[in-house]
């Protein structure tokens, strides 16, 4: 059985003028972790015309991104993967969407570090991927607050300082985040 989660959004960050709300559907094979990562990924990486799980209309791309933004030529400008992502898929994405920013968001620093090691071992192209992750305990606390109807108020995202400040369902979070370029 699939479910739909609502996220009411607001932001004081002038670089992220968010839509009023998003709906994130949960397929039978997905977990709440994946739903939460898609919602937070949408908020953290938001740009105009960003969509959740929108199919890329090209015959050579069989994958459906968790997050995607198309440019005005309908080429992929941003591709976001949330949660589990195979290294061979990332390698293919670098070829299939050569001009796109590729971001991977993980629920813990440990998962991100494991992915970085696997990417290095597989010899993936350098300076092509961006990985960000929450601390595991922070993500678990955020997940404990997940409801069918949620609110996210984003105060700031500072990639240089590696921090995110936001309110999620009435609780304030000043979160350290991992942010690495591979």
Short description:
With 182 residues, the protein is of the alpha/beta class. The protein contains four helices and ten strands, in the order ββαβββαβαβαβββ.
Report on the structure:
This protein has 182 residues and is α/β, with parallel strands linked by helices. The chain is built from 4 helices and 10 strands, in the order ββαβββαβαβαβββ. It has helices spanning 32-44, 87-96, 109-122, 136-144, and strands at 3-11, 21-26, 50-52, 67-70, 76-82, 101-106, 129-134, 149-158, 163-168, 171-181. The chain has a 10-stranded mixed sheet with strand order 2-1-8-9-10-7-6-5-4-3, with helices on both faces. A hairpin with a 4-residue loop joins strand 8 (149-158) and strand 9 (163-168). It is globular.
């Amino acid at each position: 059985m699939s479910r739909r989660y609502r996220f009411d959004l607001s932001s004081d960050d002038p670089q992220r003028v968010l839509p009023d709300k998003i709906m994130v559907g949960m397929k039978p094979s997905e977990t709440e972790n994946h739903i939460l990562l898609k919602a937070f990924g949408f908020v953290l990486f938001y740009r105009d015309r960003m969509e959740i799980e929108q199919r890329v209309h090209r015959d050579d791309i069989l994958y459906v991104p968790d997050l995607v933004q198309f440019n005005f030529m309908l080429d992929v400008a941003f591709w976001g993967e949330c949660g589990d992502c195979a290294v061979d898929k990332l390698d293919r994405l670098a070829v299939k969407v050569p001009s796109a920013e590729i971001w991977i968001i993980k629920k813990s620093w440990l998962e991100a570090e494991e992915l970085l090691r696997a990417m290095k071992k597989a010899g993936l192209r350098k300076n092509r991927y961006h990985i960000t992750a929450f601390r595991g305990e922070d993500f678990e606390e955020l997940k404990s607050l997940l409801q069918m109807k949620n609110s996210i108020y984003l105060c700031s995202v500072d990639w240089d300082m590696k921090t995110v400040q936001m309110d999620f369902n009435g609780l304030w979070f000043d979160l350290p985040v991992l942010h690495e370029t591979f």
